[in-house]
Amino acid sequence: MSERPAANPWLVWTLLITLALIWGSSFILIKKGLQVFSAGEVGALRIFSAAIVLLPLSLPKLKTLSARQWKWLFISGMLGSFAPAFLFAYAQTQLQSGVTGVLNALTPIFALLVGVLFFRGKLKRQDIIGITLGFAGTICLIVAGSGGELGNFNFYAIFVILATLCYGFNLNILKFQFSVLTPKIITSISLFLISPIAAWYLFVQSDFILKMQTVPEAKIGLFYICILGVIGTAIALIMFNRLVQLTSPVFTSFVTYLIPIVAVVWGLLDGEVLYAGHYLGIVFIIIGVAFANRPKK
């Protein structure tokens, strides 16, 4: 079988940076939504709104898929969208949004480990160097966060770690199970398959409807989470799945190294202060991404 042509570098980097901007802004949107809704309601609403907006793409393609594809698309939806949406929301009930963004950068480590252990992935020296530099930058950001006070970390950080583990599995599933499906099909149908669970929780198990009827701030909270679902989940996942197809799981997961930078910028706009460790971490992260993306022979 012939090798796939090399991806356009401009397209790859445009997708990577755009995704970093979108997902880096997701934490502030989650924070705004949590001011009105519970963590479960935020997660369910995020998934449901994303699935609804993509119905014109998913419905016409449902009959064209095999049973095997249905199975893997459901698994991908659960690991890549459903579980992280809830886990991040629960984490941010006790963690600052910036801290959550930093912990999210563990995704490349899990993507690499899952790929090597379960998908016969190969470890290249420059991948190791790039990941090491990126992880070093992440540590710098963690130490510098909140004025260098590590005491802010608590049990809720486990939710973010579990979410990044889910992302690590999903990255490899997308790469090795869906090479023949387009990103639009992968995203729209995987969200469609998990949306009934989100809808059941949102409209049956939670107080979402009651809050919309009685809480004055519920409409603005709904707006924030719908933006998160439509742009931060539906549109961004299409772009993300396209990036997975164009590059390797390890490089694609480097978007999570850029996410903390965007989260820090949002913090600055909100009056937060940057410390020297933040700047050092940002430099390490950018160098790590660039190094891991060096052309391979």
Helix content: over 70%
Give the helices and strands as they follow along the chain: HHHHHHHHHHHHHHH
Structural class: mainly alpha
Radius of gyration, in angstroms, nearest whole number: 19 Å
Termini separation comes to 19 Å
Topology:
Blueprint: H1 9-24, H2 26-34, H3 39-53, H4 55-58, H5 67-91, H6 97-103, H7 107-118, H8 125-148, H9 157-177, H10 183-205, H11 208-214, H12 218-246, H13 249-252, H14 255-269, H15 276-292
Helix pairs in contact: 1-12, 1-14, 2-6, 2-12, 3-5, 3-10, 3-12, 5-9, 5-10, 6-8, 6-14, 7-9, 8-15, 10-12, 14-15
Explain what the structure shows.
The structure is a single chain. The chain has one domain (29-292). 77% of the residues lie in helices and 0% in strands. The chain has helices spanning 9-24, 26-34, 39-53, 55-58, 67-91, 97-103, 107-118, 125-148, 157-177, 183-205, 208-214, 218-246, 249-252, 255-269, 276-292. α3 runs antiparallel to α5. The longest helix has 29 residues, at 218-246. Residues 1-5 and 146-153 have low confidence and may be disordered. It holds the Pfam family EamA. Its main location: membrane.
